[in-house]
Design goal:
The protein is an alpha/beta fold. Helices cover 30% and strands 17% of the residues. The longest helix is centred in the middle third of the chain and has 16 residues. The protein is globular.
């Protein structure tokens, strides 16, 4: 059995199927870990969601910021941005079914000495703390108040974790760390001024994985296409290589860290 971690698909269904062929994916024995952002920016979001959902127990999915965005559009009547490409989901007869399935997915998946997450885990959290905090958001999304959460989750504040946070502020802060984080200060303060590469860190900040972590296990993540799969640290496995920007869709075999990739469609660049 092999476990492959695949970076942000973002509706690039054709490339996903090509990548699964390239790794000779065997649904009877292999597992696929998806780092989140299954949808948006690419052309085939409904097909992607249906395919991954139908993989059943052969797929593990963690939620990304674009997945949460889709849920907020569906369940909060949020107006979709003109640059988004989720209309195929919104117009599908399977829209609610797919989105109710999506909201059941976790924010962190842990297995042995690997943790799977969309954006990352801040250096100020231990493994036990990160998993417990993620479960607070997961339980809310899976519960009766999921729409209230989705309608109130947006915002950059609070920008730093505090155990005494409560209510929506607490849930929003946890969600921002796990699904939006790139740069943070030494105290864990989130800095959203840049989504570019490591040379573009806001003053006083570094990439979240450049700080000394409390977690010693490997962290597998996506979200940050500007890294193009590089962290220069074996503990952190970056999988988003910018397929939706015309670069690559990448799978990493966790047993030996070997990477496999297929070329993205340059016409998708915006």
């Amino acid at each position: 059995m092999a476990i492959y971690a695949i970076g942000d698909v973002q509706g690039c269904y054709t490339e996903l199927r090509q990548l699964l062929d390239a790794i000779s994916f065997d649904p009877d024995s292999d597992l696929i870990w998806f780092t989140g952002d299954l949808v948006n920016r690419g052309p085939d979001n409904e097909q992607t969601l249906k395919f991954v959902k139908d993989l059943g127990s052969r797929a593990v999915v963690v939620l990304g910021n674009h997945d949460l965005y889709l849920l907020s559009v569906v369940f909060c009547d949020r107006a979709a941005d003109p640059s988004d490409t989720i209309r195929d989901v919104l117009q599908s007869e399977h829209c609610e079914e797919l989105c109710h399935w999506l909201r059941q997915q976790p924010l962190i998946h842990e297995c042995g000495d690997h943790l799977l997450v969309h954006a990352g885990i801040p250096h100020i959290w231990s493994r036990q703390q990160a998993v417990a905090l993620a479960s607070e958001v997961e339980n809310t999304l899976r519960g009766d108040d999921y729409a209230d959460f989705l309608c109130g989750m947006y915002g950059n504040q609070p920008s730093v974790w505090n155990e005494h946070l409560t209510g929506m502020e607490r849930l929003r802060c946890i969600t921002n760390y796990l699904t939006r984080m790139r740069f943070v200060n030494a105290n864990g303060e989130l800095r959203f001024e840049s989504n570019l590469g490591l040379d573009y860190a806001p003053s006083g900040s570094k990439a979240w994985f450049q700080h000394e972590p409390k977690i010693r296990e490997s962290i597998v993540f996506g979200h940050w296409a500007s890294l193009n799969g590089r962290t220069d640290n074996q503990q952190f496995i970056a999988t988003d290589t910018g397929c939706v920007w015309g670069r690559m869709l990448t799978a990493v075999r966790l047993s030996d860290r070997r990477s496999f990739g297929v070329q993205g469609n340059s016409e998708l660049q915006t």
